[in-house]
Amino acid sequence: MAVVSSHRALIDSMRQIDILIELTVPDNTAFTVLRTLQELGYPELTRVERADHVLLEVEDAASPEAVARSVRHAEILFNPNKHRLSYATADAPVRQPRTWEALVRDKEEDNTRLVGLLRTTFGLTSLHALARAVGWRLADSGGPAGPQRLAWACQVLLANPVSQVWEIRPLRVATAVGERPTPMENMSR
Amino acid sequence: MSAARVAVLVFPGTNSEEETVDACRAAGMDARPVLWSEPQGDLRNFDAYVLPGGFAHEDRVRAGAIAARSQSLRVIAQEAQRGKFVLGICNGAQMLAEAGLLGPIALARNLPAGHFQCRLVEVELTAPPTRCALTAAMPAGLRVPMAMAHGEGRFTGDRQTFDQLERQGRIIFRYVGGAPNGSLCDAAGVCNEEGNILALMPHPERVAWNYNLAFARPELHANPMGLTAAHAVFAALAAAVRAVA
Prior knowledge:
heterodimer; A: Mth169, Chain: A; B: alpha/beta
């Protein structure tokens, strides 16, 4: 019982921060996905956007802004020459107009070494655990694609059901950190 | 009898087609590289297909995912249904898994390493040779050196699937001494239920000649162009095609 309550206390003292890392240079993978999904049955698709998500579990007292700034200095995750970084917390409002995202994660991953590196070399001492995922957003001439389209895209290409899981969720408002270079026109737009 | 016609598929990013073609030719097959963009109808004229290693379409989305959804793979899947032989090596194995030609099996990121691993490995033919047409000409228990070079080569799936693979004898090759990449059941090569498609993660073609292995076994310098035990993979493919001709 003591173990359970101490575990509960640990969870209660943690907060989750979703770090989004996106390319500011043309995203060739997004372009390939655009063409492939068009060929697989979504010819009206006009735009694909991709973001690497680093889902951090940190001590509750940690400032999300400070955590995101630390990640921005971690060259193993972020390259200022080609990336922009933003973060969203679990209590951030949902972005309006509502935009949906498919979040794809590996069923099995081992980020022990990455957590260790971030805690030691990059000074993110409040970090407890992390998970990685890829977020996909689609749009056609009617605007952002809805959950059904995203689910279809996950089934036909974006996720492998044997080794990955996916969820469709509304995007939350994310706060940009650091200089935000003007994104080059994405090839898939 | 004319030599078996073998197509070695080349996608943008494939990088092992030359040595794969050479290894097939050294086994007496009439092999040639076939570009992914060539007319798909021509693909049907081959007796067998080899999907070589590399990083097709830069492994965008997942390793082999884009190539697996190409017209070329659809044609090869149709020809395999007619009984033709398909050998996928490394990235080619990933394409076969992504295309669903092995059943509910995936080739996922190496664990616990979590990164690309490149090393000489030894694999053993642990299934009865005749379980897979592509190994029918090999002696039981053959141990072969191969070159492992992948970041997403961990055979994975649910426990039931792998129990079934074991029961059906479809885990054809296993890593000797345990899988460095975390593959379930130490699987290095898995075939489909019918036994005419073989997905092999380590590369036999990269150590098919003595000069490839001489760095580790200096005595092989005496006969650099001699074929190694790894070449048996291609000799067995040639024998399989001959057997049905």
